[in-house]
Each structure stands twice: as C-alpha cells, then as structure tokens.
Amino acid sequence: MTSKNTDPFPIKQIRSDFPILSEKIYGKPLVYLDNGASTQKPIQVIKAISGVYENKYANVHRGVHYLSQVATDEMEAAREKVRGFINARSEREVIFVRGATEGINLVASSWGKANLTAGDEIILSQMEHHSNIVPWQLIANATGAIIKVIPIDDSGELEMDVFRSLLSEKTKMVAITHVSNALGTIVPLKQMIKESHDTGALVLVDGCQAAPHLQVDVQKLDADFYVFSGHKIYGPSGIGILYGKETLLEAMPPYQGGGDMIDTVSFSGSTWADLPFKFEAGTPNIADAIGMGNAIDYISTLGLPAIIEYENALLSYATEKLQAINSLKIVGNATEKAAIISFVMGDIHPHDIGTILDRQGVAVRTGHHCAQPVMERYDVPATARASFALYNTFEEIDSLAVSLAKVQEIFG
Fold it and tell me: Which pairs with CB-CB distance under 8 Å and at least 24 residues apart come from 88-93?
C-alpha cells in the first residue's frame, strides 16, 4: 500500500483555511472530491473579495480619485501575479476573461475569423472538453475550415502517430487540453507544440486542469495561447485568463467593443487601446480578478512542487484503494496522470453511485463531464469522477472506499 507519509505538507493548517470543509452533509463530515469541476476557496481569497467591496471598490483605469486608483493598482497587481504564475513574458500577454470558455471563444472568433479560410484544418483531440470543441465547430462552420481529431487509446493516451499523420501545411491551429478533465491524462504538450510549430500551425492549450496541479511555463512550452479559470485554482468563478503571445494578440481584431478597449471613438471610426485592454471591453470583474491574484498567492506560498508531490501521493493511494473494489473499473490509466480518477461499477449507473455517496457526505461528479466524445470512446453513458486537491486527505479516500462498498451492498 502506498505510504501516507507526506510530511512536511501542512495539511491540517491548509484545511483550516477552507471554511466549507468543516460543513456537515446529512450529518456527516463533508468529503469534497469534485475539484475537477470547481475547487473550494480559502479564507484568504474570501476576505480579499469581501475587502474590495467593503473598503476599496471603484471602477478601474478611468478614475482619478483615490478609490479608483487603489482598485486599479490592485487589479493590475493581480495581473502581474498571473504573469509570474505562468511565466508570461509581459503583462500585455495576460487578458482577464470570464473563464477559460470565453478565452477559447475569443481566440476562435478573433483569430479564427481573421486567419481561417475554406479548407484550412483545425486539429482537436478526442479527450477535449466541450469548451474546446464547440467554439472551433462554430468558427469552422463560419469559415469552411475542417476539424480533424486525434483519437485516444484504451489507456486514455493520445495516439501520437495519428497526430503526426494529421499535421500538414493545411493545419492552422491545434487546440489541445493540457490535462484531460475526464481521464486525468497529462498530454506530451511540449512535444506536440514543437511538432505543430514545425508545420506552421499555432497551438491553443486548455490549461484548466493543469494550472492547479502542474507548473505551467508558457515560455518553455512555447504555447501560442493558454487558457485557465479562476474557480479551478482556489479562486472565484466568473474570472479566467487568456494568455497569448504579444505578436499574435496585436494582430488580432477586438473580440468585443465598448468602454476601456478603445483609444479614440468617433462616428467616422474608432481605434483600439493597447494590450491587454484591447480585449477587455467594459467594466471588468474587478473584485474577482483581485481574488484570483490572492488564490495565486496562496498556491505560491505552499509551492507547486510540494502540492504536486502531495497530490501524486493521494492519486497513488486512491488508485490502489479503488482498484481493490470488486466490479469497479477505472476509466483512464495513462502513464502520466493528474489527480483525477473516473470509474464505473458494473451496471450501476454513475448517477446512482453519486447519489449514494452524497448521502455519506462524499461529493463526486457524475455524468459525461462535458466530454461526451470520451464517453463514446469507452462506450459508457457516463462515469463517476473523484478529483483531488491540495486540501484532501488519505482519510477522505478511505471514506470514499467505504462509501463505494455501501454502493455495492445496496446494488448487490
């Protein structure tokens, strides 16, 4: 059995930072294992957001009064924290959006309309989240571009030989997840980016599942675009990041029009503000941008190497515990994997599994996880998914295993 010894990771202190973890569900301690959908928030982030509205709220970038300047400074400080978190070259490359979904739609619409023509090809993978499929379908329909798909094998890994066979001079964009939300697979991203660039294609990365679990360095990866969401990195919902190489963003037309994204406006025409503001039309999500900066502070204080080591230990322990359960089958067994386990249990519908676990205080996700092509690949209607975070414990994994035994008991 995998060792539970993860000292000196300060798990007790960490759990005390998350107020919701002391909640009871149906009289039982909450075991929150739905982190792939959204993570919970530490008190430091909660207080930062409430502090904005209590003490320093005003609209940003345009006011000369004190509160506007304070709010502007804090929001731009958050942008700098994001820049450092992903090692972007410049703050001009960091765009605040409502979430990764908006970031992908922004690139598909703005870059796609300006660069795609009939017969051009976009490569996606079979393990993509719907948010990295549908925007490309929309732009393909609008431009006549063609979508090609990289299949996945039985273990949940990309079929790299097929990927290479799909690359050609017609390939204009490769849009790929960094970590599969449905399988936990970590893709060989740096290699894929290099091979894509060798054929002249750009690469957009959906980093939602990677940002809280891996060290992301967009310069080392040489990613052209990289997106992730605040709510998956212990920050607020309704805020996210689009990173783009400055030269690409400069060449792209605005995605939306309105205040703050303009330089001059007249009825004869308008000109655009400098980056990053060209893509941030209207009053931004000020408090949540600041809250996202505080979430990055929280992660950075703990240190991603320590977080990665701890979560890998959780994943290893949980894999052993679940593999020991009769009739339980893990879906996705890639060699390189993040702290996500999707599974089925014989003929028991995942929704029934999730309902019984919920009554034991254990929160997991059930369904297709916005990844219906993955479900089709494995010929299952849905899976149950346990996804782990830095505040989860080995004891909670034991609780999951005990609750799954109750599922078996009920269904025989």
Answer: 88/218, 88/219, 88/243, 89/219, 89/246, 90/246, 91/276, 92/246, 92/249, 92/274, 92/275, 92/276, 93/243, 93/244, 93/245, 93/246, 93/249, 93/275, 93/276
The whole-number average pLDDT for the span 192-214 is 98
Please give the average per-residue pLDDT across 91-107, as a whole number: 98
- Gap between the Cα atoms of 40 and 38, Å rounded: 7
pLDDT, tens digit, for every residue of 60-91? 998 899 999 999 999 999 999 999 999 999 99
Distance CA 22, CA 17 (A): 10
β-pairing, 121-125 vs 146-150, is: parallel
Kindly tell me if the per-residue pLDDT of 1 is higher than 50.
Answer: no
Domains by residue range for the chain, with CATH: 11-42+303-411 (3.90.1150.10), 47-300 (3.40.640.10)
Q: How far is residue 35's CA from residue 365's CA, in Å, rounded to a whole number?
A: 9
Q: What amino acid positions are annotated as catalytic residues?
A: 370
Number of C-beta neighbours around residue 165 at 10 A: 11
Rounded to whole angstroms, how far apart are CA atoms 293 and 44? Answer: 11
Spatial distance between the Cα atoms of 368 and 180, rounded to a whole number of angstroms = 13
Residue with tokens 């400098």: 274
Contact in structure between 388 and 315 (CB atoms under 8 Å)? yes
**pLDDT at residue 410 tops 60:** yes
> Does the pTM of the predicted model rise above 0.70?
yes
CA 223 – CA 1 distance, rounded (Å): 38
